[in-house]
């Protein structure tokens, strides 16, 4: 009986061993990478962050700096075009004013229509009357050829019931501003009540500058031509004063002007129109800046796209 049991056990063992030999292996040892392959992979990944999740190279030229640099040429080109428009407007304005100045002086009516004054700004006018020295004021300080002084403003009382107007008689040096105003005569004859003839230029109402102090009439401090307040200072409507501002014209040369300043006599304005016109210079500046920044922008884009193409090439060779 034992012999039969052993025989059966041996047969079972042979069957199990035969089955295990015929079953293929599933688990195999991983083949180790060579050091050359690992080194190549490491060097290729120097500029790529590990575990990035994507091997697609990112664009490096589209940054806030390039966006701002791309906007600057457009903006500055627009400013240059705006300056060209301003240049055309200024040239037309200068031509219009010069045409007014070339006309013969006109005589003002007895009572001037204030609302029509802007239409006649910069027109030459011819006036006759006597100076109201009691209401002369000094506006300033001002400078003329590096000499500090003031502008003398005196009401001119016109005859035959015509209204009184305000005349800026011109610049007087500071050392003479304490001299009684009746001795400051534009004709140099020093006759207090003499009738004078004045050729002047009609001007619009003046505006106060941003940093100009306020006038203090009570203290005799006048920093700018506030025509309405000067009119009230001279007596207002009750005295027949109108808010009409006229600048006396001086047609002499610079030597004559210097001589008058030395004598303490006012020197009026030039008969020429002298409006500042720098719009052509500004336009050239803006257009130049637009061109320069455009070149910088395209150079930066070209460089950025070149770097991007190199990165794509590296990615495709992995």
Molecular structure report:
One of its GO terms (biological process) is mitochondrial respiratory chain complex IV assembly. With 318 residues, the protein is of the alpha+beta class. Among the domains are: 64-87 and 278-313; 123-263. Helix content is 39%, strand content 17%. It contains six helices and seven strands; from the N terminus they run H-H-H-E-E-E-E-E-E-H-E-H-H. A five-stranded mixed β-barrel has the order 2-4-5-7-6. Strand 4 (147-157) and strand 5 form a beta hairpin. Helix 3 runs antiparallel to helix 6 (279-316). The longest helix is centred in the N-terminal third of the chain and has 38 residues, at 64-101. It is elongated. The relative contact order is 0.16. Residues 186-190 have low confidence and may be disordered.
